[in-house]
């Protein structure tokens, strides 16, 4: 057994497993995932995927399983109101679905949206394939994906979203995950299953918010499957509370000619990790990822992006910006693999980072593996500081130093939001980004 | 308006200005000419407060205040403008947005009311018309992808909008073809007024064919070695900097 398996963190996560669901295959799967986690333990510093994100500080903590009073906890709905977003909404508080905060009645034709807890009660069988494994998309490796195992063993709620073939859903769907301060330091988990049928289209906003400074541990595992010709625009706004340890895994699978546009803004949290595994499995599939992470204070934000081109003429573009200030740390890994046979694929990845304080650090690691022919790939990563000449130029025109720095930093991140089609949301996110900058 | 006395300044430990003195009154246009390495650009940068330029002796008084004690942004708000020799490209910042932020920051510092976007747009349209500049520059990011001429025209346009009292043009004529040079010169002439002074730093005499200065100074080896009227510029054109007054070689 891995020595880390005996840490207080692991012990607390194995403590109090979810009560029996009454669904034999599900309880069996949870037991298996639990056993796998107990055996593998947490990833240590020698696990390459966690090299820059040390869990030492976390391993000595204990988190209580679930929040018994999540269903009645007072939550201000203003915390997750977003301009340009007024469609159906599911809200989860400390991992528990809250019907009173959600608006999922009168859904548009072709959209099926329900909490996982309810979907399991109604008809569990269609979920069997997905929930029998820790994650639907991408590999699950021992230790490296320990939190995926924890999630599979422990998540009792989340989102089940389906768009019927050829349905075009006009109103954006918002998924809200609230981490609310409780008496104890909590661990909670959510499992999301999202599927767009052939030729379907959807705009989806995943929103993480929180309250209080208390530490929490949350894991979210989401699988997104786009069938032939489906189009998804997915926005992730992560603005969790300052004590949140938020560990997310997103698996994206794109079938032929499917298109996924992803915009990610990582603002909040204490320790934030996002594993983004994408598979372009159908000919002509397209994935465009844009993201900004802006750790400040002592935040640690780690994004692990892995895109696998596995079919002909697939395309991916990725533009990510990191801005770290104070003593914060950012980590970015951008790995692109063009598999044998994925001829004619285009892949580009660009990650630029800005350090605003001498104590800040960003580690970026681009990886490119190409095993196919006629492939175009471009790849670049930089870490630097604000340009002194530009700063002087702005100041010489009368713009005060702090404002000049904010203007240049915002401009640095702008490439990430430029092509976000929802204008009201784009403006709002841009404002949040500027507000995050150090004064 | 501007009084520079015995100014000494260092860049990276090397003394570049070695006792420069100069007086400029409102309404005057002064040309500062000199060979490469004489300290021309250093003078512009010291006056606008660029970091890395260390003043070791002397003083600069502007409208009765110690200019050297002010930050670059405070100098701008007080009415000092430097047109850069190499204007900086700032991707992601829209030219109009930048200019409005600059103007409003200056107005705020001076205790004036900030302009809303409608008022600003009106002002910008007026200035474009007067300066005969195409509004295409407005919609692009600051200097990004601009030609050399467009960058210099953008500097002059900024000057027109910001309406400084003291405008310092650091080799604004360098690298311009004759049409762009004429346009820049016309912009400067349009802005000449009894309460505005210009300091035109240039290597060549040709700008002075289009903007006729009241005074011409020769800057060599960190000091003003000769001053005169516009005929001095013509003399320089004929004889070069080599044969200048005794101070030049010191």
Strand content of chain B: 25-35%
Structural class of chain A: alpha/beta
Number of strands of chain B: 12
Percentage of helical residues of chain B?
Answer: 25-40%
Describe the structure.
The complex is a heterodimer of chains A (439) and B (250). Chain A is of the alpha/beta class. Chain A contains nine helices and 20 strands. Chain A has helices at 8-14, 24-40, 56-59, 116-122, 128-131, 146-154, 388-396, 401-417, 423-436, and strands at residues 64-65, 89-93, 96-97, 111-115, 158-163, 173-179, 186-196, 201-210, 216-226, 231-239, 244-254, 259-266, 271-280, 286-293, 300-309, 315-324, 329-338, 346-355, 361-370, 376-384. In chain A, α2 packs antiparallel against α6 and α8 packs across α9. The N and C termini of chain A lie far apart (48 Å). The mean pLDDT of chain A is 94. Chain B has 250 residues and is an alpha/beta fold. Chain B contains eight helices and twelve strands. In chain B, a hairpin with a 2-residue loop joins β1 and β2. The longest helix of chain B is centred in the middle third of the chain and has 15 residues, at 95-109. Chain B is globular. The chains are: A alpha/beta (439), B alpha/beta (250). At the A-B interface, α7 and α8 of A face α2, β7 and α3 of B.
Keywords, separated by commas or semicolons:
heterodimer; A: 439 residues; 20 strands; 37% strand; B: 250 residues; alpha/beta; 6-stranded mixed beta sheet; 4-stranded antiparallel beta sheet; 35% helix
């Amino acid at each position: 057994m891995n020595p880390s398996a005996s840490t207080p963190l692991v012990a607390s996560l194995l403590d109090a497993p979810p009560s029996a669901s009454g669904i034999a295959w599900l309880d069996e799967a949870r037991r298996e995932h639990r056993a796998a986690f107990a055996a593998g333990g947490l990833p240590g510093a020698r696990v390459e995927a966690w090299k820059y994100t040390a869990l030492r500080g976390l391993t000595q903590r204990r988190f209580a399983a679930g929040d018994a009073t999540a269903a009645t906890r007072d939550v201000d709905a203003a915390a997750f109101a977003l301009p340009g977003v007024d469609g159906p909404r599911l809200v989860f508080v400390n991992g528990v679905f809250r019907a009173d905060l959600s608006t999922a009645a009168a859904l548009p034709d072709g959209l099926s949206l329900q909490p996982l807890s309810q979907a399991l009660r109604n008809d569990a069988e269609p979920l069997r394939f997905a929930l029998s494994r820790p994650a639907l998309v991408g590999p699950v490796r021992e230790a490296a994906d320990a939190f995926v195992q924890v999630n599979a063993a422990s998540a009792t709620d989340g989102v089940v979203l389906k768009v019927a073939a050829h349905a075009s859903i006009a109103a954006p769907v918002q998924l809200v995950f609230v981490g609310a301060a409780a008496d104890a330091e909590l661990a909670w988990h959510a499992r999301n299953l999202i599927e767009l049928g052939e030729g379907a289209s959807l705009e989806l906003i995943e929103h993480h918010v929180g309250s209080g400074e208390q530490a929490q541990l949350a894991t979210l595992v989401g699988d997104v499957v786009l069938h032939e010709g489906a189009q998804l625009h997915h926005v992730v706004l992560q603005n969790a509370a300052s004590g949140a340890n938020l560990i997310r895994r997103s698996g994206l699978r794109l079938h032929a000619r499917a298109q996924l546009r992803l915009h990610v803004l990582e603002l909040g949290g204490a320790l934030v990790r996002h594993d983004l595994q994408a598979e372009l499995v159908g000919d002509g599939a397209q994935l465009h990822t844009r993201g900004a992470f802006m750790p400040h204070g002592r935040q640690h934000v780690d994004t692990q992006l892995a895109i696998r081109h596995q079919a002909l003429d697939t395309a991916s573009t990725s533009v990510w910006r990191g801005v770290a200030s104070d003593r914060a740390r950012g980590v970015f890994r951008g790995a692109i693999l063009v598999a044998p046979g994925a001829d004619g694929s285009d892949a580009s990845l660009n990650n630029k980072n800005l350090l605003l304080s001498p104590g800040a650090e960003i580690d970026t690691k681009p990886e490119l593996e190409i095993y196919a022919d006629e492939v175009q790939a471009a790849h670049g990563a930089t870490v630097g500081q604000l340009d002194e000449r530009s700063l002087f130029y702005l100041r010489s025109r009368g713009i005060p130093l702090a404002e000049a720095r904010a203007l240049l930093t915002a401009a640095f991140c702008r490439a990430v939001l430029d092509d976000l089609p929802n204008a009201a949301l784009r403006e709002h996110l841009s404002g949040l980004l500027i507000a995050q900058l150090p004064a | 308006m501007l009084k520079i006395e015995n100014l000494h300044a260092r860049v990276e430990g090397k003394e570049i200005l070695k006792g420069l003195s100069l007086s400029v009154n409102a309404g005057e246009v002064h040309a500062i000419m000199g060979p490469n390495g004489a300290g021309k650009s250093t003078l512009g940068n010291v006056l606008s407060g660029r970091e890395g330029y260390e003043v070791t002796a002397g003083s600069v008084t502007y409208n009765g205040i110690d200019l050297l004690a002010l930050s670059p942004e405070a100098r701008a708000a007080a009415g000092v403008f430097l047109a850069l020799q190499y204007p900086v490209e700032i991707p992601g910042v829209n030219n109009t947005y930048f200019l409005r932020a600059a103007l409003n920051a200056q107005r705020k510092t001076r205790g004036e009311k900030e302009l809303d976007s409608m008022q600003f747009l009106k002002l910008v349209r007026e200035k474009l018309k007067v300066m005969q500049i195409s509004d295409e520059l407005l919609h692009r990011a600051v200097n990004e992808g601009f030609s050399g001429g467009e960058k210099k025209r953008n500097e002059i346009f900024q000057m027109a909008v910001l309406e400084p009292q003291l405008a310092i043009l650091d080799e604004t004529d360098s690298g311009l073809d004759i049409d762009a040079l004429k346009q820049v010169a016309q912009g400067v002439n349009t802005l000449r007024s009894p309460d505005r002074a210009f300091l035109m730093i240039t290597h060549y005499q040709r700008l002075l064919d289009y903007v006729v200065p009241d005074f011409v100074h020769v800057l060599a080896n960190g000091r003003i070695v000769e001053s005169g009227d516009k005929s001095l510029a013509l003399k320089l054109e004929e004889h070069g900097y080599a044969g200048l007054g005794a101070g030049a070689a010191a």
